[in-house]
Amino acid sequence: MVNHFNRVERERWIVGLSKSHSSWINEKLKSRFGISLFVPEDMSAYKEETDFFWGSNNANRGRTDILVYSFPYTAQEAFTEDYLVAMRDSVVRRNVPGSFPNSYMKTEKRFELSYEPITYRGEYRGVLRGLWRMEGDKTGGPFVSHAHLDEKNQRVVVAETFVYAPGTKKANCSGGAKLRSIRFAWIDGKRKGGEKMDNVFPPSFY
Q1: What's the rounded Cα separation, in Å, for the pair 151 and 64?
Q2: Rounded Cα gap, residues 100 and 97, in angstroms
C-alpha cells in the first residue's frame, strides 16, 4: 500500500513538473549533457563549467540545488558506491566551495549511504542516497544522485539534487526515507534566462 501510494504521488509530481518547470535549465542540460531534466521554475541561479552545472533556488531556508556533471567511462567499477562517492567528492570539492576559506562540500561518511542499481525505461542507473556536509563549516543535508551511461560519448552523467533546510527535521537517507523535496525526473521535455550565482555556498544558518 505504501509503495503504491509513493508511486502514485511520484507520477503526480512528474506530471506537474512536465507542465511547469525551468525550461532554460532543461535546454542547457540537453545541450551540454544530452539529458532532459525537469526542475522547479524557482531555480533561477546557476554556475557552469565544461562538464559541470549547478542550479539553485538560492533560498536562505528550504534551499534546493541540482548538480549535473560527467566523467569518462573507463571501467565497470564506475557504477559502484565507492567509485561514485569518490568521484562526487572530487567534483564538489572543486566546484562547490563553502563560505569560509578552505571550506568545501563533501559526502558525509559517518552515516551509512545507500546505493541501488535500477533500470529506468530500459536504461541502467546507479542511485546514490546519503548526506552531505561542508568541511570547515556547519552546513549539511540530504542528497540523491542518479548516474547513467552515455554510451555514445562513453561517459557517465550524474544528476544530483541536494537540500539545505536548517531548522527542519532531516530524514535519514540511508534508511530509505521518502525525500519528497529532493526528487527529480529524468523525462523528455524551451528559454528563460537565469542569473549566475556566487561560487560559494551561503553561510551556516544553524
Answers
A1: 30
A2: 8
Q: Tell me if 57 sits within 8 A of 21, measured CB to CB.
A: no
pLDDT band at 177 (very low <50, low <70, confident <90, very high): very low
At residue 144, what are phi and psi to the nearest 5 degrees? -135, 135
In 57-184, which ranges are continuous DSSP H helix?
A: 81-95
**Residue 16, Cα to own-chain centre: how many angstroms?**
19
Our CA dihedral for 58, 100, 48, 116, rounded to 10 degrees, sits at -80
pLDDT per residue over 134-168, tens digit each?
998 888 999 999 999 988 899 999 999 998 877 66
| Cα 79 from Cα 127, distance rounded (Å) | 9
Distances (CA, A) of 136 to 99, 108, 140, 174, 201: 9, 13, 11, 24, 12
Answer yes or no: are the C-beta atoms of 127 and 116 closer than 8 Å. yes
**For residue 10, is pLDDT > 70?**
no
Q: How far is the C-alpha of 112 from the C-alpha of 127, rounded, in Å?
A: 14
Spatial separation of the C-alpha atoms in residues 2 and 84, rounded to whole Å: 29
**35 in Cβ contact with 156 (< 8 Å):** no
